[in-house]
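Supplementary Methods S3. Complex input for the 1,3-dihydroxyacetonephosphate-bound model.
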Amino acid sequence: MLVTSKELLLDAQKNGYAVGAFNTNNLEITQAIVRAAEAKRAPVLIQISAGALKYAGVDFLPMLVSKAAQIATVPVAIHLDHGPDFKTVISCLRAGFTSIMRDASKLPYGENVAEVRKVVEVCHAVGVPVEAEIGRIGGAEEHVVVSDREAAMSDPDECARFAEDGGFDFLAVAIGNAHGFYKGEPKLDFDRLTAIRERVSIPLVLHGASGIPDAQITRAVESGICKINIDTEIRNAFIRTMQDYTQKNPDQIDPRKVFGPCIDAMQAVVERKIEIFRSAGRA
Ligand code: 13P
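Predicted complex, serialized as C-alpha coordinates:
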Protein backbone atom coordinates (compact mmCIF):
# COMPACT_ATOMS: atom_id res chain seq x y z
CA MET A 1 0.00 0.00 0.00
CA LEU A 2 1.12 3.52 -0.76
CA VAL A 3 1.88 5.57 2.36
CA THR A 4 3.87 8.68 3.31
CA SER A 5 7.34 8.29 4.78
CA LYS A 6 6.34 10.21 7.89
CA GLU A 7 4.30 7.39 9.38
CA LEU A 8 7.08 4.91 8.51
CA LEU A 9 9.89 6.92 10.04
CA LEU A 10 8.01 7.91 13.18
CA ASP A 11 7.25 4.24 13.86
CA ALA A 12 10.90 3.37 13.22
CA GLN A 13 12.02 6.09 15.62
CA LYS A 14 9.60 4.91 18.30
CA ASN A 15 10.55 1.25 17.98
CA GLY A 16 14.31 1.42 17.36
CA TYR A 17 14.73 0.28 13.78
CA ALA A 18 15.49 1.91 10.41
CA VAL A 19 13.44 1.84 7.23
CA GLY A 20 15.42 1.00 4.10
CA ALA A 21 15.29 3.58 1.31
CA PHE A 22 16.31 1.90 -1.92
CA ASN A 23 16.99 3.71 -5.22
CA THR A 24 15.34 2.60 -8.45
CA ASN A 25 15.81 3.47 -12.12
CA ASN A 26 13.59 0.94 -13.82
CA LEU A 27 11.07 -1.90 -13.64
CA GLU A 28 13.51 -4.62 -12.58
CA ILE A 29 15.01 -2.73 -9.64
CA THR A 30 11.52 -1.75 -8.48
CA GLN A 31 10.39 -5.38 -8.64
CA ALA A 32 13.42 -6.50 -6.64
CA ILE A 33 12.76 -3.93 -3.89
CA VAL A 34 9.05 -4.74 -3.59
CA ARG A 35 9.62 -8.51 -3.64
CA ALA A 36 12.23 -8.20 -0.90
CA ALA A 37 9.97 -5.98 1.22
CA GLU A 38 7.08 -8.42 0.86
CA ALA A 39 9.27 -11.45 1.58
CA LYS A 40 10.55 -9.79 4.77
CA ARG A 41 7.24 -8.10 5.69
CA ALA A 42 9.06 -4.78 5.90
CA PRO A 43 7.99 -1.20 5.14
CA VAL A 44 10.25 0.48 2.55
CA LEU A 45 10.88 3.71 0.71
CA ILE A 46 11.51 3.49 -3.01
CA GLN A 47 13.70 6.43 -4.00
CA ILE A 48 13.92 8.17 -7.34
CA SER A 49 16.68 10.69 -8.03
CA ALA A 50 16.65 13.53 -10.55
CA GLY A 51 19.00 11.41 -12.68
CA ALA A 52 16.53 8.51 -12.63
CA LEU A 53 13.69 10.87 -13.62
CA LYS A 54 15.77 12.09 -16.53
CA TYR A 55 16.66 8.55 -17.59
CA ALA A 56 13.22 6.95 -17.32
CA GLY A 57 10.86 9.90 -17.70
CA VAL A 58 9.26 12.16 -15.10
CA ASP A 59 5.84 10.66 -15.78
CA PHE A 60 6.74 7.07 -16.55
CA LEU A 61 9.00 5.99 -13.65
CA PRO A 62 6.85 7.53 -10.86
CA MET A 63 3.76 5.95 -12.43
CA LEU A 64 5.42 2.55 -12.44
CA VAL A 65 6.62 2.90 -8.84
CA SER A 66 3.22 4.26 -7.68
CA LYS A 67 1.48 1.24 -9.14
CA ALA A 68 4.01 -1.10 -7.53
CA ALA A 69 3.44 0.66 -4.18
CA GLN A 70 -0.35 0.55 -4.47
CA ILE A 71 -0.48 -3.19 -5.11
CA ALA A 72 2.28 -4.10 -2.63
CA THR A 73 1.10 -5.96 0.48
CA VAL A 74 3.49 -3.91 2.66
CA PRO A 75 3.66 -0.11 3.19
CA VAL A 76 5.70 1.67 0.52
CA ALA A 77 6.52 5.40 0.23
CA ILE A 78 7.80 7.04 -2.97
CA HIS A 79 10.63 9.42 -2.20
CA LEU A 80 12.46 12.06 -4.26
CA ASP A 81 16.17 11.56 -3.51
CA HIS A 82 18.35 14.71 -3.45
CA GLY A 83 15.70 16.98 -4.98
CA PRO A 84 17.80 19.57 -6.84
CA ASP A 85 15.29 22.43 -7.15
CA PHE A 86 11.75 23.65 -6.52
CA LYS A 87 10.57 22.77 -10.02
CA THR A 88 11.54 19.11 -9.65
CA VAL A 89 9.77 19.00 -6.29
CA ILE A 90 6.55 20.32 -7.81
CA SER A 91 6.63 17.85 -10.70
CA CYS A 92 7.19 15.02 -8.22
CA LEU A 93 4.25 16.11 -6.06
CA ARG A 94 2.13 16.16 -9.18
CA ALA A 95 3.37 12.66 -10.06
CA GLY A 96 2.22 11.31 -6.69
CA PHE A 97 5.40 11.18 -4.58
CA THR A 98 4.67 10.71 -0.88
CA SER A 99 8.05 11.90 0.41
CA ILE A 100 10.44 14.62 -0.78
CA MET A 101 14.09 15.45 -0.15
CA ARG A 102 15.23 18.96 -1.00
CA ASP A 103 19.01 18.91 -0.98
CA ALA A 104 20.34 22.45 -0.85
CA SER A 105 23.29 21.46 1.35
CA LYS A 106 25.82 22.96 -1.06
CA LEU A 107 24.38 26.43 -0.43
CA PRO A 108 25.32 28.71 2.49
CA TYR A 109 23.26 28.14 5.66
CA GLY A 110 20.67 30.90 5.11
CA GLU A 111 20.02 29.88 1.50
CA ASN A 112 19.72 26.20 2.46
CA VAL A 113 17.09 27.16 5.06
CA ALA A 114 15.21 29.38 2.58
CA GLU A 115 15.14 26.69 -0.13
CA VAL A 116 13.97 24.04 2.31
CA ARG A 117 11.29 26.27 3.84
CA LYS A 118 9.85 27.00 0.40
CA VAL A 119 9.54 23.25 -0.28
CA VAL A 120 8.18 22.51 3.20
CA GLU A 121 5.40 25.02 2.69
CA VAL A 122 4.06 23.37 -0.48
CA CYS A 123 4.73 19.77 0.60
CA HIS A 124 3.09 20.14 3.98
CA ALA A 125 0.09 21.79 2.31
CA VAL A 126 -0.56 18.45 0.60
CA GLY A 127 0.52 16.22 3.51
CA VAL A 128 3.93 15.21 2.14
CA PRO A 129 6.94 15.12 4.51
CA VAL A 130 10.33 16.66 3.67
CA GLU A 131 13.93 15.56 4.23
CA ALA A 132 16.77 18.10 4.27
CA GLU A 133 20.56 17.89 4.63
CA ILE A 134 23.21 19.88 6.40
CA GLY A 135 26.94 19.31 6.15
CA ARG A 136 28.02 17.72 2.90
CA ILE A 137 28.02 13.98 2.28
CA GLY A 138 31.08 13.05 0.19
CA GLY A 139 31.24 10.83 -2.90
CA ALA A 140 29.02 10.70 -5.98
CA GLU A 141 25.28 10.04 -6.19
CA GLU A 142 23.90 10.86 -9.63
CA HIS A 143 24.25 14.64 -10.10
CA VAL A 144 25.44 15.13 -6.52
CA VAL A 145 29.22 14.94 -6.66
CA VAL A 146 31.15 16.09 -3.59
CA SER A 147 34.94 15.82 -3.54
CA ASP A 148 36.85 14.83 -0.38
CA ARG A 149 37.89 18.46 -0.02
CA GLU A 150 34.29 19.73 -0.17
CA ALA A 151 32.84 17.04 2.12
CA ALA A 152 31.93 18.41 5.54
CA MET A 153 30.60 16.69 8.65
CA SER A 154 27.33 17.95 10.12
CA ASP A 155 27.83 20.16 13.15
CA PRO A 156 25.48 19.11 16.00
CA ASP A 157 24.58 22.66 17.06
CA GLU A 158 24.00 23.70 13.47
CA CYS A 159 21.81 20.60 12.97
CA ALA A 160 19.59 21.73 15.86
CA ARG A 161 19.34 25.26 14.49
CA PHE A 162 18.68 23.96 10.97
CA ALA A 163 15.85 21.66 12.11
CA GLU A 164 14.30 24.57 14.01
CA ASP A 165 14.69 27.12 11.20
CA GLY A 166 13.80 24.73 8.34
CA GLY A 167 10.66 23.15 9.80
CA PHE A 168 11.22 19.92 7.83
CA ASP A 169 10.52 16.33 8.94
CA PHE A 170 13.78 14.33 8.64
CA LEU A 171 17.43 15.32 8.77
CA ALA A 172 20.17 13.73 6.62
CA VAL A 173 23.49 13.84 8.44
CA ALA A 174 27.10 13.72 7.29
CA ILE A 175 29.01 11.68 9.89
CA GLY A 176 31.75 10.11 7.74
CA ASN A 177 29.32 8.43 5.32
CA ALA A 178 29.83 8.84 1.54
CA HIS A 179 27.93 7.94 -1.62
CA GLY A 180 29.28 5.22 -3.91
CA PHE A 181 31.99 2.67 -3.10
CA TYR A 182 34.22 3.61 -0.15
CA LYS A 183 37.93 3.95 -0.83
CA GLY A 184 38.96 2.48 2.52
CA GLU A 185 37.05 1.11 5.50
CA PRO A 186 34.34 3.67 6.36
CA LYS A 187 34.38 4.92 9.95
CA LEU A 188 31.21 6.62 11.10
CA ASP A 189 31.63 9.27 13.77
CA PHE A 190 29.30 7.93 16.47
CA ASP A 191 30.12 10.66 18.99
CA ARG A 192 28.91 13.18 16.43
CA LEU A 193 25.78 11.13 15.72
CA THR A 194 24.99 10.91 19.44
CA ALA A 195 25.49 14.65 19.85
CA ILE A 196 23.14 15.32 16.92
CA ARG A 197 20.57 12.86 18.29
CA GLU A 198 20.65 14.64 21.66
CA ARG A 199 19.91 17.99 20.04
CA VAL A 200 17.50 17.01 17.25
CA SER A 201 14.16 15.28 17.88
CA ILE A 202 13.09 14.44 14.29
CA PRO A 203 14.13 11.18 12.56
CA LEU A 204 17.73 11.10 11.25
CA VAL A 205 18.77 9.74 7.84
CA LEU A 206 21.97 7.96 6.79
CA HIS A 207 22.93 8.33 3.11
CA GLY A 208 25.71 6.41 1.38
CA ALA A 209 25.15 3.21 3.34
CA SER A 210 26.44 0.80 0.66
CA GLY A 211 29.67 -0.70 1.91
CA ILE A 212 29.30 0.35 5.55
CA PRO A 213 30.08 -2.74 7.67
CA ASP A 214 27.05 -4.37 9.33
CA ALA A 215 28.31 -3.67 12.85
CA GLN A 216 28.45 0.08 12.13
CA ILE A 217 24.97 0.01 10.59
CA THR A 218 23.66 -1.72 13.72
CA ARG A 219 25.31 0.89 15.90
CA ALA A 220 23.90 3.68 13.72
CA VAL A 221 20.39 2.26 14.12
CA GLU A 222 20.92 1.96 17.88
CA SER A 223 22.14 5.58 17.89
CA GLY A 224 18.96 6.91 16.31
CA ILE A 225 19.20 6.56 12.51
CA CYS A 226 15.66 5.84 11.19
CA LYS A 227 16.11 5.85 7.38
CA ILE A 228 19.05 4.27 5.54
CA ASN A 229 19.76 4.84 1.82
CA ILE A 230 21.12 2.11 -0.43
CA ASP A 231 21.84 2.45 -4.14
CA THR A 232 25.35 1.32 -5.12
CA GLU A 233 25.10 -2.25 -3.77
CA ILE A 234 21.86 -2.80 -5.74
CA ARG A 235 23.39 -1.49 -8.96
CA ASN A 236 26.45 -3.62 -8.38
CA ALA A 237 24.35 -6.78 -7.93
CA PHE A 238 22.35 -5.94 -11.08
CA ILE A 239 25.28 -5.33 -13.42
CA ARG A 240 27.67 -7.99 -12.07
CA THR A 241 24.94 -10.64 -12.33
CA MET A 242 24.11 -9.50 -15.86
CA GLN A 243 27.77 -9.63 -16.87
CA ASP A 244 28.15 -13.07 -15.38
CA TYR A 245 24.98 -14.39 -17.03
CA THR A 246 25.75 -13.02 -20.50
CA GLN A 247 29.29 -14.35 -20.32
CA LYS A 248 28.00 -17.84 -19.55
CA ASN A 249 25.07 -17.57 -22.01
CA PRO A 250 26.41 -15.49 -24.92
CA ASP A 251 23.60 -16.59 -27.26
CA GLN A 252 20.77 -15.57 -24.94
CA ILE A 253 18.88 -12.59 -26.39
CA ASP A 254 15.70 -12.78 -24.29
CA PRO A 255 15.93 -9.88 -21.80
CA ARG A 256 13.57 -11.70 -19.44
CA LYS A 257 16.02 -14.57 -19.15
CA VAL A 258 18.92 -12.21 -18.54
CA PHE A 259 17.11 -9.98 -16.04
CA GLY A 260 15.53 -12.82 -14.01
CA PRO A 261 18.73 -13.68 -12.12
CA CYS A 262 19.55 -9.96 -11.84
CA ILE A 263 16.25 -9.32 -10.03
CA ASP A 264 16.96 -12.29 -7.72
CA ALA A 265 20.43 -10.93 -6.91
CA MET A 266 19.10 -7.43 -6.17
CA GLN A 267 16.29 -8.86 -4.06
CA ALA A 268 18.87 -10.77 -1.99
CA VAL A 269 20.80 -7.52 -1.36
CA VAL A 270 17.65 -5.67 -0.26
CA GLU A 271 16.50 -8.55 1.98
CA ARG A 272 19.88 -8.61 3.73
CA LYS A 273 19.76 -4.87 4.34
CA ILE A 274 16.23 -5.09 5.71
CA GLU A 275 17.45 -7.67 8.26
CA ILE A 276 20.39 -5.49 9.33
CA PHE A 277 18.15 -2.42 9.58
CA ARG A 278 15.82 -4.43 11.88
CA SER A 279 12.81 -3.55 9.77
CA ALA A 280 11.87 -7.18 8.95
CA GLY A 281 8.44 -8.06 10.33
CA ARG A 282 7.47 -4.41 10.96
CA ALA A 283 4.92 -4.18 8.12
P1 13P B 1 24.95 4.50 -1.90
O1 13P B 1 24.95 4.60 -3.39
O2 13P B 1 26.30 4.70 -1.33
O3 13P B 1 24.28 3.26 -1.43
O4 13P B 1 24.09 5.73 -1.34
C1 13P B 1 22.74 5.85 -1.70
C2 13P B 1 22.20 7.15 -1.24
O5 13P B 1 22.58 7.67 -0.22
C3 13P B 1 21.14 7.78 -2.05
O6 13P B 1 20.83 9.05 -1.61
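The chain has a mean pLDDT of 96. Residues 255-277 form the longest helix (23 residues).
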